[in-house]
Design a protein that fits this description.
Structural class of chain A: alpha/beta
Largest sheet of chain A: 7 strands, mixed
Strand order of the largest sheet of chain A: 3-4-9-8-5-6-7
Order of helices and strands of chain A: EEHEHHEHEHEHHEHHHHHEHEHHHHHH
Oligomer: homodimer
Radius of gyration of chain A: 21 Å
CATH architecture of the largest domain in chain A: 3-Layer(aba) Sandwich
CATH class of the largest domain in chain A: Alpha Beta
Mean pLDDT of chain A: 94
């Protein structure tokens, strides 16, 4: 019966069967479109660069109006990127890094400005256990991690909602005026015992999708926006796209990623209350090895005999999923797919690859993070014109 | 049957019988307390000044924790005043002036800081017909009127929500986190087709009641607040007083006025869509005379004979009400009360007094308003320490 139950995907929870979310059904339900090979090919032609493996491997798999953005760029008109982070904890896990990886790649490849919203207010309002001071502290640590991803200081503005609210506020109340309580309920499913700030927050996530929210950066120009994020954020931008034309603004385009799985499997949730459900960007190599060895859900056979005969079920194998997200070497990944899928390669072998790739990724991040100073944070958070060729 | 219907008083509408709101019932229903002669006497003792006629005549008639404020002052500890204005139109009417008159008097008498909130966001969110630009324009014109009331530049800070939101925001979301949708509905009676910004706004009216919302003015000090306003604003401050202790803040005290009546009578509403329902601060002497002569509801007898026999019904007589609010001369007001109440004085005579008093008030305001420069507006709106002896 499991597979007949409908997946539930909201910005607040994801429920699915053990093979994870059915993305065909989700795309149909949300009403967005699949990224096609032609899109990836166009990105290569337009940027002159081999598309990032998160694009080539279909991890960024769905979109709205990506064609509009690509033809804007083809016509030598500017666009900008916008993504965000809710500072609910001091340390990010590897899954949190995915949108920043693709955004940095897109920023470099297209040479466009990048806007990063840190929703300190959201996390304070949505998490009963967090104080205002907690989220301020987490916001700063999260920004340090984001800068460590390598964003270009000349092309990137990072802000917390509370630090930039004076600029966001006019568009925030414009959005709020054009969305009823019933519409918020339809999109987000809150109830009467939820606090009123939680109800009122969603329109704020729309605001950075409008270029005139950033007068110091874009002046009064009306510049199209592309939002690469995980698909659970789609309700925010369905709402945004619904209201935008009614207030005279451009609809933002979106580019959606599949979900990054928890160690325990594609139907489980990474949870801050269970440190073993995810690998954190401040984990040590020993902890990483231990977590992957002990907790990463395997799609391998239950016995050596069964494994050699049937091979691994790659669709539910967490180490294989992690490699798909993080291993850059296409040839090695293909070799693993064939050999592990056929049973020639064993679970402990793919786990060794996974430990190596994830450890390298985390240690390199830690090294770059240690170089991020408070002055750099301040510089990224200073509103200023962003120097971009085609703007 | 009329008198058995319960009055409906909310920040958005007032419905009552023809003798106006039953304030005994309203005070009981809201759970606030009556201002007693002892309070007025204490104000005289503490300030060394004869209390303003709006206090002496019982127009400011109800309160919460006024005793706390008076004993704070008696103990030589500071408090501050807070009131507000929703900029829904360019011109104020005479009724809008009442809170500013009492606040200016209290500021001078107690020598305390005054905070004035201009709720541009509220009016934009609550009035479908108003654009964001409309409310910005009205806000500036309303501030000009408020400054013309004579507030002391050394003791007064005026802000619009959108211009000062960066400081208000932390306490705004703290308030929002501690109020559920159901509680907003219980206090304000909105429904699902109302926009989400309207639902979320009320906690912002609480924020200026907390001194730490104004770091440039009060530093980190925890200073008690007194809010003199019309009693229809009570729901905002019941809500504020309910939440304040839960977030570690002092409950603000309130001082409530009775309603200023429309020209057409105590059970009618002053309405921007009917220019003849109120006297505006930019009306000419001719218009003022015309409005009072033609439209001010009279409690006089229907015939001269009836009037001479029974006298005027002062409780419903609009000119008498206006004089109670605006005539400073106690002896003349008492003479009118006796002579008009007994039928010795005629409606046209009291209307002549009313025209004279209101015209003097409006012309003097227009004179002072013409002296308010843009530089003065900017000065009042600049956050800065307020120079007050006992702070």
């Amino acid at each position: 019966m499991e597979e007949n139950k409908e997946d539930v995907v909201t910005p607040f929870s994801i429920e699915s069967g053990e093979t994870g979310v059915d993305y065909e059904k989700l795309v149909a339900k949300f009403g967005c479109e699949f990224v096609k090979p032609e899109h990836v090919q166009q990105i290569e032609e337009l940027t002159g660069q081999k598309p990032h493996h998160l694009l080539r491997r279909g991890i960024y798999f769905a979109h709205r109006d990506l064609d509009v953005i690509l033809s804007t760029f083809r016509n030598r008109k500017p666009f900008y990127l916008y993504t965000g982070r809710g500072p609910s904890s001091a340390a990010l896990h590897v899954g949190h890094m995915v949108p920043f990886i693709i955004n940095k790649w897109l920023q470099d490849a297209f040479n466009v400005p990048m806007i990063i919203q840190i929703t300190d207010d959201e996390k304070y309002l949505y998490r009963p256990e967090l104080s205002y001071e907690d989220v301020q502290k987490y916001a700063k640590e999260n920004i340090r991690d984001i800068i460590a991803c390598g964003f270009d200081i000349n092309k990137t503005f990072i802000f917390t909602d509370s630090s930039y609210i004076h600029r966001l506020y006019p568009n925030f109340i414009k959005m709020q005026k054009h969305i009823t309580l019933n519409q918020i309920q339809g999109c987000f499913g809150f109830n009467g015992t939820d606090n009123i700030g939680k109800w009122a927050y969603p329109p704020l996530q729309a605001v950075p999708a409008f270029s005139n929210s950033f007068p110091e950066i874009f002046g009064n120009r009306n510049i199209p926006c592309l939002i690469p994020e995980a698909i659970d954020q789609d309700p925010y931008f369905r709402m945004t796209r619904d209201v935008a034309p009614r207030i005279g603004y451009l609809k933002p385009a979106v580019l959606h990623a599949k979900f990054f799985p928890a160690l325990q499997g594609l139907n489980t949730k990474m949870s801050a209350s269970d440190a073993n459900s995810a690998i954190y960007m401040d984990d040590t190599p020993e902890v990483i090895a231990k977590k992957i060895t002990s907790y990463a859900f395997s799609g391998g056979g239950r016995s050596l005999k069964e494994h050699r005969e049937k091979g691994a079920n790659l669709a539910v194998d967490v180490p294989f999923q992690y490699l798909t997200f993080f291993m850059e070497d296409d040839a090695r990944l293909e070799e693993i797919r064939v050999k592990y899928g056929s049973g020639e390669m064993l679970t402990k072998e793919i786990k060794a690859d996974t430990i190596r790739i994830v450890t390298e990724f985390v240690l390199e991040h830690q090294r770059r993070r240690s170089l991020v100073t408070d002055e750099m944070i301040e510089a990224f958070m200073t509103p200023r014109p962003l120097l971009v060729n085609n703007l």
